[in-house]
């Protein structure tokens, strides 16, 4: 198939999943066309059958805000026409779904081509942004007009139906993990740079938005640190970093907490870690937790959203009420208390991660592409690419 993929090209989960999905599809022989504003972060080397099309937005003095949505729709039309796309897969509802639907309408009216549009929902595009009255009607329309809709968790699928009071059909296809990239590795030489032999290494990775509750990570670590030697690695950046750093100073923990900023090879840091902290206020899936588990790092997370679908209670880690840093610290200490406990949870975390291995999820997307394509070809026999 010739598949167009629209996504955010940044460190965010939706962009990471979209890019890794495209690369995997290309390896299966599909022709993939990324349509984005910048080169995707995870598209880090040449891959056969992968092509990139940049969305250029003209900077006219008339526009206070550049009309990215219109520019994206125009670029989709261009790529679909001249690359003869079979399917357009857009990741994150705003503004990609509406742009995809707009482009499909233009192609149908102006060029006699019907381009099936599949929208994948990733989380905050529904649970946060999608609820905003400024966007809600557009998101609702785009979902109903999409030829197929998927969500990364059962929680997100139901939240979408509840938010928009709709019975739109949503197929749950969970996020996946590449076990060739994320795996347990011996990186003791690297670990010695950041922690001593007797110290446990806790880690958190995110975009440091308020919903991630990164100050809770520091509160949890403060309790753990009083019971055993430890270091905390804070990987990522965002608006809440300044508050977290201030909290470190208040608690005199600056020597033991390392703010490492954004990192390309997060798997290198997970490889030297003992425990992953994800105390988020909401998570539609929890891709960061899955990456940690694949590297043999058990997870202490909030019991919210899609996290119970990823982090298996008492097996790959523990689930605790949002904001209950005391319980999270208690569970962290339970895992870290003995080498035997840590080893067992590490093994089980990898077992749980293996259920989301890429080779298990990729066929689900391929089957859904084929289903949507055939359905569209039946409805518009003279307009769908052949």
Give a topology summary.
Blueprint: E1 2-6, H1 13-27, E2 31-36, E3 50-54, H2 68-83, E4 87-91, H3 96-111, E5 117-121, H4 124-127, H5 136-145, E6 148-151, H6 154-163, E7 171-172, H7 188-194, E8 200-206, H8 214-227, E9 230-236, H9 241-250, E10 257-261, H10 266-270, E11 275-278, H11 287-294, E12 299-302, E13 317-320, H12 325-336, H13 339-354, H14 358-379
Parallel strand pairs: 1-2, 1-4, 2-3, 4-5, 5-6, 6-7, 8-9, 8-11, 9-10, 11-12, 12-13
Report on the architecture of this protein.
There is one protein chain. By secondary structure, the chain is α/β, with parallel strands linked by helices. The strands form 2 sheets. Strands 3-2-1-4-5-6-7 form a 7-stranded parallel beta sheet, with helices on both faces. The chain contains 14 helices and 13 strands. Helix 8 crosses helix 12. The chain starts with a strand and ends in a 7-residue tail after the last helix.
Features:
386 residues; alpha/beta; Rossmann fold; 2 domains; 7-stranded parallel beta sheet; 6-stranded parallel beta sheet; 13 strands; 16% strand; elongated
- Percent of residues in helices comes to 40-55%
Which sequence of strands runs across the widest sheet? 3-2-1-4-5-6-7
Instruction: Return the CATH class of the largest domain.
Output: Alpha Beta
Task: Say how many strands there are.
Answer: 13
Q: Please state the average pLDDT score.
A: 91
Helices, by number, come to: 14
Spans of at least 5 consecutive residues whose pLDDT stays below 50 are none
CATH topology annotation of the largest domain: Rossmann fold
Please report which band the strand proportion falls in: under 5%, 5-15%, 15-25%, 25-35%, 35-45% or over 45%: 15-25%
* Main β sheet profile: 7 strands, parallel
Report the span from N to C terminus.
10 Å
Q: What is the alpha-carbon Rg in Å?
A: 22 Å
Query: What CATH architecture of the largest domain would you give?
Result: 3-Layer(aba) Sandwich
Q: What is the N-to-C succession of helices and strands?
A: EHEEHEHEHHEHEHEHEHEHEHEEHHH
Total number of distinct structural domains: 2
Oligomer: single chain
| Overall 3D form | elongated
Query: For the record, what is the CATH homologous superfamily label of the largest domain?
Result: Glycogen Phosphorylase B
Query: Which structural class do the helices and strands define?
Result: alpha/beta
């Amino acid at each position: 198939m010739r598949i167009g993929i629209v996504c955010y090209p940044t460190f965010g989960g939706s962009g990471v999943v979209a890019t890794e999905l495209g690369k995997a599809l290309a390896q299966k022989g599909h022709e993939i066309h990324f349509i984005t504003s910048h080169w995707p972060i995870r598209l880090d080397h040449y891959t056969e059958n992968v092509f990139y099309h940049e969305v250029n937005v003209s900077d006219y003095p008339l526009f206070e805000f550049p009309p990215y949505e219109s520019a994206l729709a125009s670029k989709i039309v261009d790529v679909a026409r001249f690359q003869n796309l079979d399917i357009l897969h857009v990741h994150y509802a705003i503004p990609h779904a509406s742009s995809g639907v707009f482009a499909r309408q233009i192609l149908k009216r102006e060029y006699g081509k019907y381009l099936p549009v599949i929208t994948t929902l990733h989380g905050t595009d529904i649970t946060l942004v999608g609820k905003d009255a400024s966007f809600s009607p557009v998101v609702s329309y785009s979902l109903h007009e999409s030829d197929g809709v998927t969500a990364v968790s059962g929680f997100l699928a139901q939240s979408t139906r509840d938010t928009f009071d709709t019975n739109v059909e949503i197929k749950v296809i969970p996020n996946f993990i590449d076990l060739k990239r994320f795996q347990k590795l011996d990186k003791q030489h690297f670990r010695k740079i950041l922690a001593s032999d007797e110290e446990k290494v806790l880690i958190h990775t995110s975009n440091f938005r308020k919903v991630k509750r990164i100050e809770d990570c520091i509160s949890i670590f403060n309790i753990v640190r009083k019971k055993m030697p430890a270091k905390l690695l804070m990987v990522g950046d965002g608006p809440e970093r300044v508050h977290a750093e201030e909290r470190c100073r208040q608690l005199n923990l600056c020597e033991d907490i390392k703010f490492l900023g954004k990192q390309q090879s997060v798997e290198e840091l997970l490889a030297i870690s003992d425990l992953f902290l994800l105390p988020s206020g909401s998570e539609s899936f929890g891709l960061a937790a899955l990456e940690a588990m694949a590297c043999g790092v058990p997870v202490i997370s909030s019991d919210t959203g899609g996290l119970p679908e990823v982090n298996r209670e008492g097996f790959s880690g523990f689930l605790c009420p949002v904001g209950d840093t005391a319980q999270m610290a208690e569970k962290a200490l339970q895992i870290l208390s003995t080498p035997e406990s840590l080893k067992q949870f590490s093994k089980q975390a990898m077992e749980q991660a293996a259920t989301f291995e890429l080779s298990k999820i990729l066929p689900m997307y391929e089957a859904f592409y084929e289903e949507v394509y055939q359905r569209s070809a039946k409805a518009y026999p003279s307009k769908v690419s052949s």
